[in-house]
Records
---
Amino acid sequence: MELKLVNENKLKIILTNEDMVQLDINPEEMDYDNTGTKRIFWDILDKAKHQIGFDAGAEKLFVQVYPDKNGGCLMYVTKDAQKNNPYIYEKKYKSKLYTGVKKKRVLYMFEDSEILLEACYQLNLTGYKGKSDIFTDETKYYLYIDDNKETSVELLSEYGILINNPLFEFYLYEHAQKIISSEAVKIFSEMLKKT
C-alpha cells in the first residue's frame, strides 16, 4: 500500500493486487454501506493520518476508486475543500457557484510544476484538444483550459484546486506570468514524455 499526499485536501492511495487480497476487498464490489468496507476504509485513513498527516476527521469526503489492470486499485480521497477555499466565490443574489472564471473556461491551481506536468500528461491521454494556458506567480502554477467537460474537471481535481472565482482572472493577468499559450496541455505533456 502506498499513500501519497497530493495536497492538503487530497490523498492518493495505491493498492496492489496483494494489498487487495490481504484486505479482502474487490474494487468492483466496494460498497460503503457494507460495514467491512467502512472498517477497511477507515483503517487506511488512520494509517494515512499517522504516516503522512492526512486527517479526514469529521470532514465530508469524496472517494474515487479506479481498478487497475494488475488487480489492484487507485483511490483518491478528497476532503470537502469548498468550505475553507478562498478561491471559491459565491454570488450573494443567487444560490449557485460559478462554473469557472469565464463561461467555458476552467482554472486550476497547482502546488508545483511536477503536479501540473502530471495533470497535463493525464489530460492529454484523454484526448483533450481544447485551448489551454499555463501561468505562474512564482509560488503556484495555474492551468486555464477552454473545456469544462466533466471528465476534464474530474481529472484535474485529482491534481489541483479549482479556482471558482470570476475575479481571479484579473489577478492572473496582473500578477502572474503566462509561460505557455494556446496548447499548454499538449506542450507540457510532451515534456513528460521526453523525460
---
Amino acid sequence: MYCLQIDVWAAGVILYILLCGFPPFVSTNNDQEELFDHILTGHYEFSSPYWDEVSLPAKDLIAHMLQVQPELRFSAEDVLDHLWLAVSLYCINPSTLALCATGVF
C-alpha cells in the first residue's frame, strides 16, 4: 500500500547513493532473493572507507529515512527539520558561506 512515507524511503536511498556512490541494499552474490531480504529487513551498512568522511548527522538522517517501519520513519517535515539538512542549507547560502568555511558548523 502506498503512503507518503515511501517517498521518504526513496529519498533516503538516493541520499545514501549520493553520499557514497552505491546503493544501500546489495547482494554480495547478486542474488535477487537475498537483495529483497536486505530491503525488507532494512539491512545496510555505512562501510569503511566510503563512509569514513561522512558526518554522524548525515548518517543519522539516512538511518531515520530508511527505517523499515513506516510509522517510525521520518516524515518529509522531519527530514527538512533535521540538523544535517538545516546546516547544509545554511552553508550553501552565499551570505553565510564564510562562516561554514571556518568549520564552525
---
Amino acid sequence: MNTKVTLCFKSLFISLLLASLNACMVFPLDESNTDRSLNWCPPLHNCASTEASTFIHSIQPFNLKLPLEKAWPIILHTVDNLPGTKIEHQYFGYIYAKSYSDLFKFVDYVEILAVPNENRLKVRSSSLLGLTDMFVNYYRTELLRKILEEKGVITRPSVH
C-alpha cells in the first residue's frame, strides 16, 4: 500500500510540474491574429522584451531606419544567424525562433513582430525553464540590436 501511495504522489507531482511548464511555453502568433502583440514576460528574471512594463524585463525599442520591405530580409538573416538560433515559424512581419544555450542546450523563445505604422519592431526573448537566465535573453536582444544597428536597419533609441 505504501508504494502505491508513493507512486500516486510522484505521478501527481510530475503531472503538476508538467502542467506548470505549459504556462512558460510560447507558441507562434497566427498570421490572422489581430491582437499584434507579443506574449507577456512571466514574473521571473528570465525574459527581455520591448513591451515589458517592469524594469527587470524591459529593453529599449528597436526603431526601424529602413522601410520594412528592405529591412525584413536582413532581419530574417540576422535572427537565423544568432548563436544557437533557428527560425521555426515566420511570415512577413513576424519571426518565431528557438535559441539553444551552448552548454546545457536550454531552449529560449525569440519573437520579432514588426509594427509598420510605428516604424519599429517588438522584440521578446524568454526562457522556457528556470527562475533566472543569468541575463542571457537580455544579452541576446542586445546582440541583435548591435548587429541590426551595424547593418543600418535600426537606429539607437534616443536618450531622454
---
Amino acid sequence: MEVETLRPRLVIDTNVFVSGLISGAGSPARILRAVQRKQAVHLVSDPIVEEYLRVLGHPRIRKFRKITDAFVADIAAYLVYQTERVELQSRIRMSPDPDDDVFLNTAVDGRATLLVTGDKTDLLALRTVESIPIVSAGEALFRLDF
C-alpha cells in the first residue's frame, strides 16, 4: 500500500499550471506529468480551482488551439477527482499581491512540500511560507528529481 506522505505535496501557482497545459515542453509540463503519473500530490483549494478555470476561460488563453471547451471540461474533472482539496483555515497575508495569498494559505493548510510558481515579483521573492519553500518550476524539478 502506498504511503501518501512519501509523495511530495505541491501547490502549483496558476502561471505554472496554465503554462504546463499549453506547452508540452518545459519545466511546468514536466511537473504536471509527474502529478499525472502520481509521483506528486497536486493540492488545490476552492479559490485556486476557480482561478485556474477563470484563467483558462480568458480569450488570451483560449487562442491556443489546445484550450477548447472540451479540454477545459476535462481539466475541471481532473481538479475535482484527481487533486487533493484543501479546506482553508489560515489567513496568511504576506504577498505584495493579495490575490497570491490563497496559494500561501493552501500550501500551509495542505502541508505542502513546495509551492511552485513563476511569479518572480511577488511569490518567489518571499522564498518560504512557514518553512515551506517557494520555488520555480525548474527548482522544483531539481529538488524532487522528476
